[in-house]
């Protein structure tokens, strides 16, 4: 179908599923084990209802914001997803170019298909990019990656902490990959075991010994704000604040790691209240959420509950797998239109006016 016939992110996914290589579909769409968490990520949003306000002059609404000190046109960012070229030959560059046009921040994955330099050079001069980091068993390699990112102008470091070992994504494991690997891995001649699916093939370097004592080292090698990606309970959010992080992403890695891990938005209320109880200012310490976001209304719910922004993964990679960069443009436009409408109908003119009282999350319960 023509791109203009896609009027929701779901439509883009449906097209992608039919046109993209099945290996790519299996890698992108899979979740861990029985995919209970994968499904729960999206359905958690269905348990949150609005309490709209009326009669509030919503002729003008705006929803730009500031994330880790960087401007963003909407409270969302393109999160890191590995192996962008499985779905489309231009891979991550589709995301870079579209993010630039829409004033949205892109998180560059450690395991991008395109090289880091390629992704940085595709960015406009004033375009913000962050780096997602998998800490390597060889810390010298990690230090080099981090320093290179900072000196090239990357504005934030998102350290993935929910993947000391990659989860079992069975759909992906059943595919036998012979051509997988990042450009950098191929260049370095690193030996890759391709018999267990794409995810396992590329991830054996990740250091499972990473722990809170490493925060000192991480902070010593960079001045970028450090955010822990993959926090799944309030205790770890408080610890992250106490260890000098700039924020956390409440995330279960898109349901690809521990099945039955809670969804980010489900634990958001208890995280916000624990941070308050521990005297953490959530203006300075920013809380992000990702997983299962498919509508601007989902984003507004997360914002109402205290998130600064949400990360969106699969919808953007499906969009470019189906239609290239224009598909991502379309996804961004759909979200922007939905935002405008949803804010108006909710009775909020700006994100500041989206408050906890505007949602009913009594069914959210994560006791
Ligand atoms: C991911 N995610 C991820 N996260 C990370 O920190 N490093 C990575 O290399 C990857 N790779 C990756 C690949 C693919 C195909 C997916 C779908 C996801 C997780 C990602 O950043 C994010 O947490 C989820 O994708 C959010 O869920 P949705 O938006 O995909 O539902």
From TrEMBL:
<comment type="similarity">
    <text>In the N-terminal section; belongs to the cytochrome b5 family.</text>
</comment>
<dbReference type="GO" id="GO:0046872">
    <property type="term" value="F:metal ion binding"/>
</dbReference>
<comment type="subunit">
    <text>Homotetramer.</text>
</comment>
<dbReference type="GO" id="GO:0020037">
    <property type="term" value="F:heme binding"/>
</dbReference>
<feature type="domain" description="FMN hydroxy acid dehydrogenase">
    <location>
        <begin position="1"/>
        <end position="364"/>
    </location>
</feature>
<keyword id="KW-0560">Oxidoreductase</keyword>
<keyword id="KW-0479">Metal-binding</keyword>
<keyword id="KW-0496">Mitochondrion</keyword>
<keyword id="KW-0288">FMN</keyword>
<keyword id="KW-0349">Heme</keyword>
<keyword id="KW-0285">Flavoprotein</keyword>
<dbReference type="GO" id="GO:0005758">
    <property type="term" value="C:mitochondrial intermembrane space"/>
</dbReference>
<protein>
    <recommendedName>
        <fullName>L-lactate dehydrogenase (cytochrome)</fullName>
        <ecNumber>1.1.2.3</ecNumber>
    </recommendedName>
</protein>
<keyword id="KW-0408">Iron</keyword>
<comment type="similarity">
    <text>In the C-terminal section; belongs to the FMN-dependent alpha-hydroxy acid dehydrogenase family.</text>
</comment>
<dbReference type="GO" id="GO:0006089">
    <property type="term" value="P:lactate metabolic process"/>
</dbReference>
<dbReference type="GO" id="GO:0004460">
    <property type="term" value="F:L-lactate dehydrogenase (cytochrome) activity"/>
</dbReference>
């Amino acid at each position: 179908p023509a791109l203009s016939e896609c009027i929701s992110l779901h439509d883009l996914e449906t097209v992608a599923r039919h046109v993209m290589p099945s290996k790519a579909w299996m890698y992108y769409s899979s979740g861990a084990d029985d995919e209970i968490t994968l499904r729960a990520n999206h359905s958690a949003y269905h348990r949150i209802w609005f309490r709209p306000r009326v009669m509030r002059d919503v002729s003008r609404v705006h929803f730009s914001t500031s994330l880790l000190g960087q401007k963003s046109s909407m409270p969302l960012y393109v999160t890191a997803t590995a192996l962008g070229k499985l779905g489309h030959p231009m891979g991550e560059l589709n995301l870079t170019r579209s993010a630039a046009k829409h004033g949205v921040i892109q998180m560059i994955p450690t395991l991008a298909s395109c090289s880091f330099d390629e992704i940085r050079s595709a960015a406009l001069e004033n375009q913000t990019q962050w780096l997602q980091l998998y800490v390597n068993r060889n810390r010298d390699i990690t230090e080099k990656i981090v320093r290179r990112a900072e000196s090239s102008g990357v504005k934030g470091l998102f350290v993935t902490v929910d993947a000391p070992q990659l989860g079992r994504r069975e759909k992906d494991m059943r595919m036998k990959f012979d051509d997988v690997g990042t450009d950098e891995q191929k260049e370095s001649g690193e030996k890759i075991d391709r018999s267990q699916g794409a995810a396992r093939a590329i991830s054996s370097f990740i250091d499972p010994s990473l722990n809170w004592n490493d925060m000192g080292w991480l902070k010593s090698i960079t001045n970028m704000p450090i955010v822990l990606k993959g926090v799944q309970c309030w205790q770890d959010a408080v610890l992250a604040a106490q260890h000098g992080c700039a924020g956390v992403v409440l995330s279960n890695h898109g349901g690809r790691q521990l099945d039955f891990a809670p969804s980010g938005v489900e634990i958001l209320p208890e995280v916000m209240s624990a941070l308050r109880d521990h005297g953490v200012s959530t203006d300075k310490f920013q809380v992000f959420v990702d997983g299962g976001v498919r509508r601007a209304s989902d984003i507004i719910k997360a914002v109402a509950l205290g998130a600064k922004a949400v990360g969106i993964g699969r919808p953007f990679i499906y969009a470019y797998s189906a239609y290239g960069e224009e598909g991502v443009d379309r996804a961004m436009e759909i979200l922007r239109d939905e935002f405008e409408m949803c804010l108006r109908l909710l009775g909020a003119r700006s994100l500041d006016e989206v408050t906890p009282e505007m949602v009913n999350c009594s069914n959210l319960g994560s006791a």
